[in-house]
Every structure is written in C-alpha cells, then in structure tokens.
Amino acid sequence: MFAYMDMKFIDTHTHLFLPEFDSDRNQVISNAKSVGVEKILLPNVDSSTISNLFKLADKYPDYCFPMIGLHPTSVKPNFRNELNQIEKWLKERKFCAIGEIGIDLYWDKAYKEQQEEAFRYQIDLAKKYDLPIIIHARESFDEIFDIIDDVIDERLYGVFHAFTGDEKQAEKIVEWGFKIGIGGIVTFKNSGLGNVVKNIDIHHIVLETDSPYLAPVPKRGKRNESANIIYIAQKIAEVKDMSLQQVAQITTHNAKQLFKL
C-alpha cells in the first residue's frame, strides 16, 4: 500500500455493509486507515440492508456514517412501504444524507414512473430534514435533470454520485450548487471522464469508491474497497496537474462541508 499518513481522504460512497465484506470488514477498514481515509460514508440500498448498515455504523461511530434512502433499482410495487420505513428511521436516528436515490433505466425501465415518484418523495424528505441527497443517475440524466429543475431551491443540495456525464451536464450540476462524485471510472482508459474532470473546478468534486463495485485501475475487475481511493485521487491529480496533497485537502474539505462532518 501507500504511506500517505499526512493526507486525509473521505470515501463519500461505499457499501461496506454488504455481504462481499463479511469475511474481512475490519481488515478493509484497517487498509483504508493506512492510506489516510479518515471517514467513510455508507449509502443505504433498501429495507433489507438497514440492519447491517446500522450494525456497522454503531460499531465504528466516528468512522462510518450512515445514510438512509431507497435505491432506484429497489423500487418495486411495494415502494411506498419502503419509503415509509425511511421516514420512520429519519425520526429515530441521525444520518449524514438521504441516499442513495435517483433513477436507473439501465437495469429495468418497468418501474420508471415509480422511480420518479420515489425520487421526488425522498427529495422532499431531504428538504424537510435538511440533508444532502446522493443521486444515482444511470442512463437517466434527462429524467433526473427535469426533476431537479422542477424542485430546485436553496434547501436542495447534494452530490451526483459515480458521475459519468459530459462537461455540459457537469456545468449544470455545479450551477445548481451540487457536488460531483468521482470514483474509479475516471481511471478507465476509454471512459473519457478524465477530460471532463480536467475542466471541473476541484472545489466541486468529492471522492468515492462505490465499493465493492467499480474498482479503479490497477485493481480493476477485483472487489473494490475504500483504500483504493488513493488511485482515484492520483488520477485526478494527474489530469488536473495538481499535487496529490492538494487533491486530498480540497476534496476532503468539500466532503466535510457537504455532509456537515
């Protein structure tokens, strides 16, 4: 690994509570700490993941910060029951964000209308509880942009997670005052994301791994983990012609500001 203990990172998006980490979760946290990851943020999936999410957050209260939300791919006919559970937990526990939420038209378009309804509902919850939203946008930028355009006000803020859009879309996101979540995709040779990142002001970027998914080069194809954030930061430093120290410092500050950490 690397020894960058003078640098601090925040992984703003990792699913460390999933079964993929059941055999070595403590080691994964230890690996993250060894490269300077000082906090990790945990986006929920649906009601089936809440128990494990809480278990992890309770075990590492100053390190693992939970979010609550209904992932768009979990929006099914019973989605209103799922949303009721989210609202119930918002009254009972502290969260750093509503997430992850959004629209995903890659896996299944059958519940498009329900996904849009769930997205709007959770945006309202975010405004009510003064929390940022974590937006999952897969093959759905137009639909999501239409909704944000419709509901944007000074109470709505957050991050477009795992950003894969173009410069024009990035500009629109920044205009709304949202952050842009950059993960392992920026290291993929043919993604073209490096060229987009080059032109996004670093003050609008937060780092994320989305582990166990989307491992960056040179770990591509393997299970991702928070320690790999170093490769994402290095790539951003390279395309923006900045020092790794600067990338760490500014993106960590951005994350602390956004999530009120």
Description:
This protein is of the alpha/beta class and 261 residues long. The chain has a single domain (9-259), classed as TIM Barrel (Alpha-Beta Barrel), CATH 3.20.20.140. Helix content is 41%, strand content 14%. The protein contains nine helices and eight strands. The chain has helices at residues 25-34, 50-59, 79-92, 112-129, 141-151, 167-175, 193-198, 229-240, 244-259, and strands at residues 9-11, 37-42, 64-66, 98-104, 133-138, 158-161, 179-182, 205-207. A five-stranded parallel beta sheet has the order 4-5-6-7-8. Strands 1-2-3 form a three-stranded parallel beta sheet. It is globular and about 45 Å long.
Q: How do the helices and strands line up, and which of them pair or pack?
A:
Blueprint: E1 9-11, H1 25-34, E2 37-42, H2 50-59, E3 64-66, H3 79-92, E4 98-104, H4 112-129, E5 133-138, H5 141-151, E6 158-161, H6 167-175, E7 179-182, H7 193-198, E8 205-207, H8 229-240, H9 244-259
Parallel strand pairs: 1-2, 2-3, 4-5, 5-6, 6-7, 7-8
| Low-confidence regions | none
Q: Which structural class matches the secondary elements? A: alpha/beta
Question: Biggest sheet, in brief?
Answer: 5 strands, parallel
**CATH topology, which one?**
TIM Barrel
First-to-last CA distance: 27 Å
Taken from the alpha-carbon principal axes, the silhouette is globular
Physical arrangement of strands within the biggest beta sheet: 4-5-6-7-8
Helix content: 40-55%
In CATH, what is the class?
Alpha Beta
Number of E strands? 8
Number of helices: 9
- Rg, nearest Å: 17 Å
CATH architecture term: Alpha-Beta Barrel
Tally of distinct domains: 1
CATH superfamily: Metal-dependent hydrolases
**What's the rounded overall pLDDT mean?**
96
Order of helices and strands: EHEHEHEHEHEHEHEHH
Give the percentage of residues in beta strands: 5-15%
